[in-house]
Specification:
By secondary structure, the chain is of the alpha+beta class. It has a single domain (3-65, 88-234), classed as Metal Binding Protein, Guanine Nucleotide Exchange Factor, Chain A (Beta Complex), CATH 2.170.150. The chain has helices spanning 3-9, 11-21, 41-64, 69-77, 80-85, 102-108, 225-247, and strands spanning 91-94, 128-132, 138-141, 145-146, 154-155, 163-167, 174-178, 184-190, 199-203, 208-212, 220-223. It binds zinc ion. Zinc ion (ZN) is lined by residues 132, 134-135, 137, 178, 180-181, 183.
Length: 248
């Protein structure tokens, strides 16, 4: 990877400036910096509650019946769109997300940009799922990936609910962040007519991790110290129950 070199040599600024001027791309502005505090805890905790409820429901249904009929019922209620978007991913409550190296932290936490080029996942065409490097949330399916020749991985659709859009710090572009952890992904552009969906998610490779089709997708990490504590206590209590019964 040449990120560090390019950062030091201001290669990003040159590349973005040239390509953006040519109207070819709209990449991140490397001049925009922010602190890890930009990871919005309040929004994340909102997600946590929903995720916790979903996880509880899923656990309950799995406990009540591990047969396929409940799954069939669920499937029959799902629309074609939902089926297309659904990704089998468990939720895990943790105290912290995956640790990031300096290059990943620069992009994901400080909203930096990788230099454009054929590296990373730009040219990847394998079938599979792209997950968030920081929290493992499934973000994009390979079916949505297309060749835009902009130098970054491009997708014309996200997995339902996985990506949040917000106005970029520059005031005009639309920044995309992981809806679970708030990590910076890149920007989204519309009206370029690359694909029928007319949308281009321009995503930094280092913000993602590719899971080839057939390989298990790791659980989505949800940072909730209270929930993690309660889950641990619950597990401890459950494990100690048989011992107490034996004593009686
Ligand atoms: Zn994430």
């Amino acid at each position: 990877m040449k990120i560090g070199q390019s950062i030091r040599s201001h290669g990003i600024a040159v590349a973005c400036g040239v390509l953006a001027t040519a109207g070819l791309i709209g990449c991140d502005n490397p001049g925009v910096t922010s602190t890890p505090d930009d990871i919005e805890i309040s929004e994340t905790s909102g997600t946590v509650k929903v995720a916790a409820e979903k996880a509880d429901k899923k656990d309950a249904s799995e406990t009540d019946s591990d047969q396929a009929d409940s799954k069939d019922n669920k499937d029959s209620k799902m629309s074609e769109k939902e089926k297309e978007d659904s990704v089998d991913q468990k939720v895990k409550f943790v105290f912290d997300y995956n640790s990031l190296n300096a290059k990943a932290a620069y992009v994901i936490l400080r909203k930096g940009t990788e230099p454009p080029g054929p590296g990373g996942y730009t040219m990847t065409k394998d079938a599979g799922t792209y997950i968030c490097r920081q929290c493992n949330a499934a973000l994009y399916k390979s079916e949505a990936k297309f060749e835009s020749h902009c130098g970054w991985p491009s997708f014309d659709d996200e997995i339902d609910g996985a990506v949040k859009r917000q106005t970029d710090a520059d005031g005009y572009r639309v920044e995309i962040i992981c809806n679970n952890c708030g990590g910076h992904l890149g920007h989204v552009f519309e009206g370029e007519n690359f694909t029928e969906k007319n949308t281009r998610h321009c995503v930094n490779s280092i913000s993602m991790k590719f899971i080839p089709k057939g390989k298990p997708i790791p659980p989505k990490l949800v940072v909730d110290k209270q929930a993690a504590k309660e889950a641990n206590q619950k597990r401890t209590a459950t494990e100690s129950e048989p011992v107490q019964q034996d004593k009686d």
